[in-house]
Design goal:
Helices cover 45% and strands 7% of the residues. It is mostly helical.
């Protein structure tokens, strides 16, 4: 399911750990709405970088978050955070610097 032009629900909920441990990582409708907002933001990041973005971790159910040792109040559990890579743009630090220096909210 497409959440925006370049991001799908599947890539924002995929998790190797969830697969390996058979953890349900299906988001609620409320979370899908948050992920849709997140995808719109990521479109802005993608446009800023001029490069494709790979999601390494998006939504995490509470069970999944606990399994991977995520922070107890992680925004990943609210559908409000994604860990990203954009290797054709640069290093993670360069990506952070580009976002920090931009007008993105
Ligand atoms: Zn994160």
């Amino acid at each position: 399911m497409n959440l925006s032009d370049h991001f799908t629900l599947e890539e924002l909920t995929a998790s190797q750990t969830a697969s390996r441990f058979n953890i349900d990582n299906t988001p609620s409708e409320e979370i899908v709405a948050e992920l849709t907002r997140l995808a719109a933001f990521l479109e802005g990041v993608r446009a800023l970088l001029g490069a494709p973005i790979t999601i390494s971790s998006g939504y995490r159910s509470l069970e999944l978050n606990a399994r991977i040792g995520g922070a107890s109040k992680s925004q990943h559990c609210e559908g409000q955070a994604a860990d990203i890579l954009a290797p054709s743009y640069g290093t993670p630090l360069q990506v952070c610097q580009a976002i920090q220096g931009s007008d993105l909210p």
